[in-house]
Amino acid sequence: MMRSLYTASTGMYAQQLNVDTIANNISNVNTTSYKKQRAEFQDLLYQQINRPISGTNTNDPVGVAVGLGVKPSAISTSFRQGSLQETDNSTDVAIIGQAFFKVEVPGYDEELYTRDGSFKIDSEGNLCTSDGYIVVGTDSIDENATDIAIAKDGIVTYTTSDGDEAEEAGQIELVKFMNLNGLEKLGGNLYAASASSGDPEDWDPDDDSSVYLQSGYLELSNVQIVDEMVDLISAQRAYEMNSKVITASDEMLQTAANLRR
Question: What is the CA radius of gyration of the chain?
Answer without folding.
Answer: 27
